[in-house]
Recover the amino acids of this structure.
């Protein structure tokens, strides 16, 4: 894996770990049959019937057709693969007169077409990772990250969601707040850690509110789903085809629920469960990540050149946390690499199995008192201290949930998770406190049913530490027309990392064939 590819994946993992705000079950048998495709053919397109099924969003948004134009400010070549695309851009004028709306009425989008893909090719909207992470400016990289069969068939569309990109960004996370976020305390029930967390929450609330005004709480997945439907209308199609990963997958489920009759096809890879409160989601992630840590420790001896963490990797990881936490000037939120930095690094990197040897080397250095490799991993994953998408990611996370955890609730949640995830549990629960001072939401998420929608494909890895498999199963069970395909892996995100899942996605999007119910892909 190249360093740039590794960084791209780490960015997605970091955002999910920070926002959560984005115990795995045992999952299927460990001796499964190979997944097969074509046994349950289904046409991808509008839901059956003569009428359009309606959801909370109504019959659909209206928008004038997009006028595609050249956009020299957007890269047409993916720097990782070298793949080149025909790239153009456009604007979608959306209705911002609703009391629940926010932002610039012009939503900016980009389109990438591989060589030979005609201008009238079917459109595929892709939302990978967090809001603002892979928008208009990243369209070539997003297209290059799809399977060859998909990118050679579709015109790939990326969009600057409300509150992100040049569509009206809320870039409210200062360098000071980012450093505080990277150095939170390891246990939010300790007085110093609790104080630093409360200060960060108040600072974010003030700074983001100062930029967005009273409409801050209107930047959420519900508004983003409405914008996606306006994009569908501007593309001139009756239905929308999309791929979502991480937050993008959860957003896809929200879209399907709000506009079930407007969904043509959706691949939802590693979604969260919108029914879960933030503390429940955090607890599930903590248990899954702790199990991933145990697997990491068990496999460390097999790394090329041996395990940098010695004969007891788990003990050395715990030592890395304590050594950096006890270093001079390393208090919670102080901006100096500490034990919380180690725990945050674990959360963001345990879902990147290919990067485990590098992680082990950084942890060994931390256990010896050198925190620089950990600091470099965190800063590199962010792309710097002033990353523009991290603020919107936190805004969406807080605005999509009604939970504002109190100190008493925090203590209860920490004590409940400690036996199941003694190292990562308290810290992960503590991240929920980022939203503690946030204003009440306009449209918190809940159950998603998408009654009447076209078939939906949901993908999940059974040991994913950031999208716990039980939550993926729960979401698939809520959606009326979803089929779940599973991957025996601890990798965060299945498509296109798993060839088996990629084959299934290709079959679904190109021929309308869904995988058989219960399909499980091998490691």
């Amino acid at each position: 894996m190249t360093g740039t590819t590794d960084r791209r994946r780490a960015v997605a993992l970091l955002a999910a770990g920070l926002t959560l705000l984005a115990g795995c079950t045992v999952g299927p048998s460990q001796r499964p049959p190979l997944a097969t495709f074509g046994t349950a053919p289904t046409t991808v397109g509008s839901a059956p019937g003569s009428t359009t099924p309606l959801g909370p969003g109504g019959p659909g948004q209206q928008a004038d057709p997009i006028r595609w134009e050249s956009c020299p400010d957007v890269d047409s070549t993916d720097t990782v693969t070298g793949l080149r695309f025909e790239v153009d851009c456009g604007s979608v004028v959306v209705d911002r007169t609703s009391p629940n709306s926010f932002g610039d009425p012009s939503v900016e989008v980009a389109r990438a077409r591989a060589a030979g893909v005609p201008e009238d090719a079917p459109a595929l909207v892709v939302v990978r990772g967090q809001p603002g992470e892979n928008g208009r400016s990243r369209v070539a990289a997003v297209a290059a990250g799809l399977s060859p069969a998909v990118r050679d068939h579709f015109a790939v569309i990326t969009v600057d969601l409300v509150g992100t990109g040049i569509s009206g960004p809320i870039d409210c996370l200062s360098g000071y707040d980012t450093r505080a976020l990277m150095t939170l305390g390891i246990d939010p029930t300790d007085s110093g850690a609790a104080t630093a967390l409360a200060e960060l929450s108040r600072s974010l609330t003030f700074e983001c509110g100062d930029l967005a005004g009273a409409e801050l709480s209107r930047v959420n997945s519900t508004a983003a789903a409405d914008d996606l439907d306006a994009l569908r209308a501007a593309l001139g199609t009756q239905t929308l085809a999309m791929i979502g990963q991480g937050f993008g997958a959860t957003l896809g489920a929200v879209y399907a629920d709000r506009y079930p009759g407007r969904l043509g096809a959706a691949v939802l890879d590693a979604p969260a469960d919108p029914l879960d409160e933030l503390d429940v989601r955090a607890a599930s992630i903590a248990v899954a990540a702790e199990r991933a840590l145990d697997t990491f420790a068990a496999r460390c001896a097999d790394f090329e050149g041996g395990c940098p963490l010695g004969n007891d990797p788990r003990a050395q990881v715990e030592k890395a946390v304590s050594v950096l936490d006890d270093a001079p000037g390393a208090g919670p939120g102080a901006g100096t690499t500490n034990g919380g930095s180690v725990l945050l690094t674990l959360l963001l990197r345990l879902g990147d199995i290919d990067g485990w040897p590098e992680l082990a080397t950084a942890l060994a250095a931390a256990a010896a008192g050198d925190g620089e490799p950990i600091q470099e991993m965190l800063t590199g994953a962010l792309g710097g201290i002033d990353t523009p998408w991290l603020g919107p990611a936190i805004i969406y996370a807080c605005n999509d949930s009604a939970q504002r955890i109190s100190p008493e609730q925090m203590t209860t949640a920490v004590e409940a998770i400690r036996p199941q995830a003694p190292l990562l549990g308290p810290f992960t629960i503590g991240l929920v406190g980022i939203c503690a001072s946030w204003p009440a939401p306009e449209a918190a998420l809940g159950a998603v049913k998408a009654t009447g929608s076209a078939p939906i494909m949901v993908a999940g890895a059974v040991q994913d530490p950031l999208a716990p498999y039980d939550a993926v199963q729960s979401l698939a069970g809520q959606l009326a027309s979803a089929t779940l395909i599973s991957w025996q892996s601890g990798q965060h995100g299945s498509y296109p990392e798993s060839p088996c899942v990629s084959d299934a996605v290709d079959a679904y999007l190109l021929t309308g064939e869904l995988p058989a119910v219960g399909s499980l892909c091998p490691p």
Remarks:
- The chain has a mean pLDDT of 89.
- The chain has two domains: 32-166+219-275+452-521, 175-214+296-400+403-435.
- Residues 191-212 form the longest helix (22 residues).
